[in-house]
Each structure stands twice: as C-alpha cells, then as structure tokens.
C-alpha cells in the first residue's frame, strides 16, 4: 500500500517537484522575483484599502465591477490581480499568490505566468458582464445586484495557473481535483466569485487546447538534440618489451658513439 502511494506521488508530482526544487536550489529567492513583487503589491493594496483615506483610491485603481464601463474595466483588470477581496483573510490571498505564482514562475517562466494569469482574470471579468446581462433565470446568468460586486481579485488567476501547471507537468489528478473543487464551490455557494473561477478554468482549458493543437502540428516541438560525434578508439599499445633507443635517436645527443667494429 505504501509503495503504491509512493509510486502515485512520484508519477503525479515527481516532475513538478524536481523542477521547482532545482530552480530554488540554483537561484533561491531570485528564481521568483515576479512572485515576490506580486506578494508585496497585494500586501500593500491590503494595507492601503484598510485605511480611512485609502479605500477609494484602491477601488479606483484595481477594483472591477460588471457595472463599470468596459474600457475602464479593461484598464483596471491587470491591477485587479493584486487587490484582495474584502470579505476574505489577506493571509489566504498572500499564501495563494506566493505558492501558485511561485511554482508557475519557476515552471513556466515569468511572462507565460503573467499571460495565463491575465487570461484567467480577464475571462472572469468578461463573464460577469455577460452573466448579468443574461439575468438570473438561466444556468449561467447572475442577478443584477451582482453587477455591483467586486471581482475575485487574485483567486481567478491562481485557479487558472494551477490548472495550467498541472496539465503542463502531467499532474492530471491534481488538476482534476482543482476543477472538481471549483464546481463544488458553485454548487454549495452559487455566487459571482465561484462562477468567475469556472470561467477562468474554461478560458485556461481553451488555452491548453490551442497549445496542444500547435504542438501536434509541430510548431512548439523542441529541436532534436544533435548526436555526439563518435570518438575513434585509441590504438592499444603493442605487447612485449619496449625497444631501446636506436642510434638515430641518440644522434642528437653528445653521448652518442659510433658502433665498434672488429
């Protein structure tokens, strides 16, 4: 039983663990500069918005609602990744950003991590506007009151990155567990945040489908390593005693003497 669990853990998380460990051992905290910046920015927004003078500036910079004009919402969306929700503990948001963004930055690279995070957040933002327009009667709709609710902040990006990293490193059961957990969240508490998480997952699954399609066409296949040139075998030394120096080898020395003839 223990061996089976160990084999499963190695298959599920072995490549992911090896990549993260190698990155941290080689570069330590320098391996995740973007993640550390994101954690600091999220903490700063949390501190400022809890001040009497800071709540409205943070809302104007990074809070997105479905009632906002589309252009304004798109301008605020990049910074909305780092504005924690008011009804959730900030330590939870910071832990999510540090863990998931850090793993993604090491495994995917800085720019791909930011791109996936933005796609997931943007999907949640656009879904909220469409769902409010659909109304509460349909399965994908939302009541008009949700148009005043602030978007989920970094959590949609965290969910999207988790699914993408699990797919990239073949942690299929872990990725499926993340998706199932988000579905259960919506079934238990049918609110805007839960449905935005599902929208983020749907957007990332579309990105994965597009990536797989490109890879099957050979566009993103890594180049084949060039074969190393075969080295010629060194000649084996001849067996038997080594011959002594002949007269021609001693000709350039002062101790050479001609052979004595009788």
Question: Please, could you describe this protein's structure?
Answer:
The protein is mostly helical and 262 residues long. The protein has ten helices and no strands. The protein starts with a helix and ends in a 12-residue tail after the last helix.
Distance between the termini: 93 Å
Tell me the fraction of residues in β-strands, as a range.
under 5%
Percent helix, as a range, is 55-70%
Biggest beta sheet summary: none
Given the C-alpha coordinates, what overall shape results? globular
Which secondary-structure class do the elements indicate? mainly alpha
Secondary-structure element string: HHHHHHHHHH
Overall average pLDDT: 83
Report low-confidence residues grouped into runs of 5 or more.
222-233, 247-259
Task: Please tell me how large the radius of gyration is.
Answer: 32 Å
Counting DSSP E segments of at least 2 residues, the number of strands comes to: 0
Q: Number of helical segments?
A: 10
Keywords:
globular, mainly alpha, single chain, 262 residues
């Amino acid at each position: 039983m223990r061996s089976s669990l160990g084999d499963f853990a190695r298959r599920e998380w072995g490549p992911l663990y090896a990549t993260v460990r190698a990155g941290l051992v080689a570069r330590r905290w320098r391996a995740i500069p973007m993640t550390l910046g994101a954690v600091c920015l999220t903490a700063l927004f949390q501190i400022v918005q809890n001040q009497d003078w800071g709540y409205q500036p943070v809302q104007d910079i990074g809070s997105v609602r479905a009632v906002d004009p589309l252009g304004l919402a798109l301008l605020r969306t990049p910074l909305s990744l780092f504005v924690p929700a008011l009804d959730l503990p900030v330590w939870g948001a910071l832990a999510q950003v540090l863990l998931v963004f850090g793993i993604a930055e090491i495994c995917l690279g800085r720019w791909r991590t930011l791109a996936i995070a933005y796609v997931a957040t943007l999907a949640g933002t656009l879904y909220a506007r469409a769902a409010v327009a659909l109304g509460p009667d349909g399965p994908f709709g939302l009541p008009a009151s949700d148009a005043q609710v602030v978007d989920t902040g970094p959590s949609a990006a965290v969910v999207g990155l988790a699914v993408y990293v699990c797919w990239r490193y073949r942690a299929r059961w872990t990725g499926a567990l993340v998706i199932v957990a988000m579905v259960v969240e919506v079934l238990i508490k049918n609110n805007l945040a839960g449905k935005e998480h599902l929208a983020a997952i749907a957007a990332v699954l579309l990105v994965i489908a597009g990536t797989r399609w490109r890879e099957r066409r050979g566009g993103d296949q890594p180049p084949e390593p060039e074969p190393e040139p075969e080295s010629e075998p060194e000649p084996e030394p001849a067996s038997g005693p080594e011959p002594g120096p002949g007269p021609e080898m001693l000709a350039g020395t002062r101790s050479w003497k001609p052979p004595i003839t009788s």
